[in-house]
Specification:
alpha/beta; Spore Coat Polysaccharide Biosynthesis Protein SpsA, Chain A
Length: 475
């Protein structure tokens, strides 16, 4: 009897071990392919054009753009962010700030800084959203409008902005973010070069913590002086210059960041805008656009281009970062299961196989498999079920591969954007790329498993994202 029981334990341990190994190998394969494709895509990209040359080429044909800025309790950063947007180098654009029922002084700060007054502006009610309480314009600039509405969440606020805007393209940007001066022109370039097929474009998101910011511009780039934002710098480099560049190259990009993305208004209205109450409204919208275009049998492009850069504030405390990451995980799971019929569906081609396959392996199964590995592999070793050689090989593979991926992402960053002018910065980031694999990566996976648990419990809480303010960055 004891022998049968022991045999069952060994069998169960073997099955779990192979599940963990299989999930790890699948993720490893995906990351390696991303690195190879991203490196190839960078090698084929033309040299980065100077801003003045872009203006000369596209200034006369650049389409109007509306910048939509959902703002909820953004009093620390919103005025500086709006100043930054108004100073962008683009011939025809408007900034529409949507105050989503903020409980702090967000609206009052905007009224005071830009002398806002109420006005009337007819708009198309193409998408549903919470009631608008008032529209404001500024006598200081004809480019700025503010929408004051009842709180309905980020997706609801963005839908209100889409209704109010009149431009054929709109760009969504977080209220705590700062665009580089030529970001709009660079993001609009694919729409100008290929107006029939391009329906969405995403740019690079970078961490502004520690940099010197004046008058809504990043004047000097510095690394954060705290470890947690430093870890996120490496994480963002890996996410954008490796993953998104690779998926964009094969037209399977599944996410255009909600912090900075440009869309064709007609296509977004056609899919019903942003999904109300969604935890991952940016991922949700891109999936809907893929589905809509595939169902219609139309050729299209959803692109990521590295050069348009948006600077944002990263969480500086573990509690705030944990809330952010668990919410991201819930958003990924919500979107995966909402559109699960697309998974491995031949009708959706590479989007169904590669795009959704990636979400399944990395976001759905990945966190569970990794956390099980952290707990069960050492436990099986202690019980004598697994050999010491297996334990050492498994551990070495995890850490060596994690370091390799992070360092290669830094290489891609230096090859393309070169935003860190000092060799010391690259040395620090290389060290951080090693350090993150010894604690931070594991902590992230535990947060993602917590997000899984919250999803199963139908937890829809957003969680307060406490800000320190970009204006408080390094002087």
């Amino acid at each position: 009897m004891m022998s049968d029981w022991s045999h069952e334990i060994v069998l169960a341990a073997s099955i779990l071990s192979w599940f963990i190994i299989g999930a790890g190998l699948a993720q490893t394969t995906i990351y390696l392919l991303q690195l190879i494709i991203a490196a190839y895509a960078l090698s084929k990209r033309p040299p980065v054009a100077r801003s003045a040359l872009l203006w000369h080429r596209y200034g006369d044909v650049a389409p109007p753009i509306a910048l939509l800025v959902p703002a909820y309790n953004e009093e620390l950063n919103v005025v500086e962010s709006v100043h930054s947007m108004l100073a962008l180098e683009y011939p025809n654009f408007e900034v529409i700030v949507i105050n989503d029922g903020s409980k702090d002084q967000t609206l009052q700060r905007l009224i005071g800084a830009f002398k806002l007054v109420k006005f009337r502006r007819p708009y198309e009610e193409a998408l549903a959203h919470k009631p608008i309480r008032g529209l404001y314009s500024s006598p200081m600039t004809e480019r700025l409008f503010v929408v004051d509405k009842e709180n309905g969440g980020k997706a609801d606020a963005q839908n209100a902005g889409i209704n109010v805007c009149r431009a054929p393209l709109f760009c969504v940007i977080d209220g705590d973010s700062i665009l580089e001066p030529d970001a709009l022109m660079r993001a609009a370039q694919p729409f100008i070069d290929d107006p029939e097929r391009t329906i969405a474009v995403g740019g690079t998101i970078r961490i502004a913590n520690g940099s010197r910011i004046e008058a809504g511009r990043v004047r000097e780039i510095h690394l954060p002086n705290r470890l947690l934002p430093l870890l996120q710098v490496v994480e963002y480099l890996r996410a954008f210059l490796m993953a998104r560049l690779a998926w964009s190259h094969i037209n399977t990009l599944m996410l255009v960041s909600g912090a900075f993305g440009m869309f064709r208004r007609t296509e977004v209205v056609a899919v019903g805008g942003f999904t109300m109450g969604s935890m991952g409204e940016d991922l949700d919208l891109v999936i809907k656009l893929h589905r809509h275009m595939r169902d219609a049998g139309r050729k299209y492009r959803i692109q990521f281009i590295p050069e348009p850069v948006c600077w944002t504030e990263a969480p500086e405390t573990l509690s705030v970062l944990a809330r952010q990451r668990t919410r991201w995980q819930r958003g990924a799971l919500e979107c995966f299961f909402r559109y699960r019929a697309m998974l491995f569906n031949p009708r959706y081609g590479r989007v169904g196989f590669l795009g959704f396959g990636h979400i399944l392996i990395v976001d759905v199964l990945g966190p569970v498999a990794e956390v099980l590995g952290y707990i069960l592999i050492p436990a099986f070793w202690l019980l004598g079920i697994l050999s010491t050689e297996y334990l050492l090989a498994f551990t070495s593979l995890i850490f060596t591969y994690g370091v390799c991926v992070s360092v290669c992402s830094l290489v891609l960053e230096e090859a393309e954007l070169q935003r860190f002018p000092r060799a010391r910065d690259l040395a620090v980031l290389t060290a951080v790329a090693v350090i993150e694999n010894f604690g931070y990566r594991q902590l992230n996976n535990f947060w993602r498993v917590k997000g899984w648990w919250q999803y199963l419990r139908a937890d829809q809480s957003w969680g307060e994202m406490t800000r320190t303010g970009l204006s408080g960055a390094k002087k």
